[in-house]
Amino acid sequence: MTTSPTPHPIRKAPLFTPYVLLWTTVGALSLGTLMVVGLAPEWLDDLRPASIMTDPQSNQGQRAAARIAADLNALKGSVAQIQLDLSKVKTDVAAQSEQQRTVSAQVAALQTRAGTDQAVAKTDAAQPIATAPVEQAAAPAATPAPEANAAIDTSAIAKTAPAIQVSAPAASPAAPKAGAPARTPKVINAEATALGLETGSVSAPAATADAISFGPAVVKPAPQPVGVKISSGASVDSLRLSWSLLAEQHGDALKSLEARYTAAGDAANPSYDLVAGPIKSKAQAAKVCKALTAKGVACTVGAFAGDAL
Question: Is 291 exposed, middle or buried (0-12, 13-18, 19+ CB in 10 A)?
Answer without folding.
Answer: middle
